[in-house]
Amino acid sequence: MSPRKNYPKNKRPKSDDRDIATSNQTIEEHAEGSYVVRKITGSTSNKPYRCPGCDQMIPMATPHTVAWLEGDEEGRRHWHNACWAKRSNRKPRTERTRNAPRY
Ligand SMILES: [Zn+2]
């Protein structure tokens, strides 16, 4: 029998996460680091935001995406869902696939 112990699952989010509803929150890995990504249904937004993806305004009460680098919630940005998805799909090595072997 192995004497290995299970670590207790006691890790809790930091207290400054308490203001944020975590239900729709996910972590996405990007080149710059881990992004906290939150889907907004629109009902909670009460002012328009400018999307950094297309530089257009996101009208009030529009479902959209809020994302920020983990630990940098102050720097969070509001994105159109489509613009965030486009950004996620953008890979730095798009030209490399031409001669790549297929699996
Ligand atoms: Zn946009």
UniProtKB/TrEMBL annotation:
This is ATP/GTP-binding protein. It comes from the Bacteria. It comes from Candidatus Planktophila limnetica. Residues 1-12 have a biased composition (Basic residues). Residues 1-27 are annotated as: Disordered.
